[in-house]
C-alpha cells in the first residue's frame, strides 16, 4: 500500500512538472509570437514609410524646381534682335554699338534708343516724356544735367551742334545714344527747338517716337528727322530735314523784311527784377522764377547776363 502511494505521488509530480513546462513553453511561445508579430508590424510600418519617402523622392527628382519669373524692362524678349546696353548718361564717347537698345532717360525716366547694324541712331521711343525739374534734380546752372555732350562724328563741323533727340529740358541724357550732329540753326531756333518748346509748354508728352534717317550707311549725320507724339490728346507729326531752315526759307523766297527777333522791350539792361541776389548774373532758376520760358536764346535781352557754357547760343535748352 505504501509503495502504491509512492508511485501515485511520483506520477502526480511528473504530471505537475509537465504542466508547468507546457505553460512556460506556451508563455515563451506567446511572447516570441508577440515579438515576431510586433517585428513584422514594425517591418511593415518601416517598409510603408520607406516606400512613401521613396515616392516623394522620386516625385521630387522627376519635377523641375519652381523658379519665380520676374520680368524686367531689360528683358531681351521685349526688344527681339537687340542687345540691351547700359551706358552712363554723361559718357562723352561718340561711339555707338550696333543693334543695341539703350535707356537714355535721366533718373527714373525710361526712354529707349535703338541703333541699326551700322551703329546709327535710328529710333527713340518713350511712353511718356517727363520734363526736367530743376527743383528736385541735379541740374547745372546751364540748365543741363551734364557739362558736355557726346562727341558723335560730325559734331566737329562748325555748322553742326551736338543735338539731343530728347533734350535735357525733356529729361534726356547726353551720351551718343541721344545725340546726333544737327544743323545749328535747326537745333537752336528751328523745328527742333520749336518741338521741344511745345512739349515743355504742354508739361510733357506721351507716345513719343523719333525716327532718324541717314543718306547712307557710312555717316553719323542724319538727313532728316520725324517726331510723332501726343500733346493734350492730339497726335502731332513733325518732319524736317537736317538743314538750315533760314537758308531754305530764303531760297524759297519766304523771308522778307524780317523784323527784329529781340524778345524784349527792355533796352536799358535792367536786370534788378530778375537778378534776385544782385550779383549781376542771371541763373536759369532766377529767369524761370521771373516768368521767362526756357531756353533763353542769344537774341534775348537776358542772354548776355546768363552763362552759356557750351557756347551754343542757348541757355536752359
UniProtKB/TrEMBL annotation:
PROSITE patterns: PROKAR_LIPOPROTEIN
Keyword Cell cycle attached: no
Keyword annotations from UniProtKB, A to Z: Plasmid, Signal
Pfam families the record matches: Endonuclea_NS_2 (PF13930)
Biased composition (Basic and acidic residues): 28-52
Location of region: Disordered: 26-77, 243-278
Extent of Acidic residues compositional bias: 56-72
InterPro entries hit by this protein: DNA/RNA_non-sp_Endonuclease_sf, Endonuclea_NS_2
Signal peptide: 1-25
Regions of compositional bias (Polar residues) in chain numbering: 260-278
The keyword Nucleus is annotated on this UniProt entry: no
Ranges for domain Type VII secretion system protein EssD-like: 157-228
Protein name: Type VII secretion system protein EssD-like domain-containing protein
Amino acid at each position: 500500500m505504501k509503495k502504491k502511494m509512492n508511485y501515485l505521488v511520483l506520477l502526480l509530480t511528473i504530471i505537475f512538472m509537465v504542466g508547468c513546462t507546457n505553460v512556460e513553453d506556451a508563455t515563451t511561445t506567446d511572447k516570441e509570437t508577440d515579438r515576431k508579430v510586433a517585428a513584422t508590424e514594425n517591418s511593415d510600418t518601416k517598409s510603408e514609410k520607406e516606400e512613401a519617402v521613396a515616392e516623394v523622392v522620386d516625385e521630387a527628382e522627376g519635377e523641375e524646381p519652381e523658379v519665380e519669373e520676374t520680368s524686367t524692362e531689360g528683358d531681351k524678349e521685349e526688344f527681339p534682335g537687340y542687345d540691351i546696353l547700359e551706358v552712363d548718361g554723361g559718357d562723352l564717347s561718340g561711339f555707338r554699338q550696333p543693334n543695341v537698345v539703350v535707356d537714355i532717360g535721366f533718373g527714373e525716366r525710361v526712354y529707349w534708343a535703338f541703333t541699326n547694324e551700322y551703329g546709327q541712331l535710328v529710333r527713340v521711343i518713350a511712353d511718356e516724356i517727363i520734363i526736367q525739374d530743376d527743383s528736385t534734380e541735379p541740374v547745372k546752372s546751364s540748365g543741363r544735367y551734364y557739362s558736355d555732350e557726346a562727341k558723335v562724328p560730325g559734331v566737329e563741323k562748325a555748322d553742326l551742334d551736338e543735338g539731343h533727340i530728347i533734350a535735357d529740358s525733356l529729361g534726356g541724357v547726353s551720351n551718343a545714344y541721344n545725340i546726333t550732329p544737327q544743323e545749328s540753326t535747326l537745333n537752336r531756333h528751328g523745328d527742333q527747338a520749336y518741338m521741344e518748346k511745345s512739349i515743355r509748354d504742354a508739361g510733357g508728352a506721351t507716345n513719343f517716337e523719333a525716327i532718324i534717317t541717314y543718306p547712307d550707311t557710312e555717316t553719323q549725320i542724319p538727313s532728316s528727322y520725324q517726331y510723332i507724339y501726343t500733346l493734350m490728346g492730339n497726335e502731332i507729326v513733325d518732319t524736317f530735314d537736317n538743314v538750315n531752315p533760314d537758308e531754305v526759307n530764303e531760297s524759297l523766297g519766304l523771308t522778307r523784311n524780317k523784323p527784329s527777333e529781340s524778345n524784349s522791350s527792355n533796352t536799358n539792361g535792367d536786370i534788378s527784377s530778375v537778378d534776385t541776389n544782385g550779383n549781376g548774373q542771371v541763373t536759369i532758376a532766377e529767369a524761370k522764377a521771373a516768368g521767362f520760358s526756357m531756353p533763353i536764346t542769344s537774341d534775348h535781352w537776358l542772354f548776355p547776363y546768363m552763362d552759356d557754357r557750351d557756347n551754343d547760343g542757348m541757355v536752359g535748352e
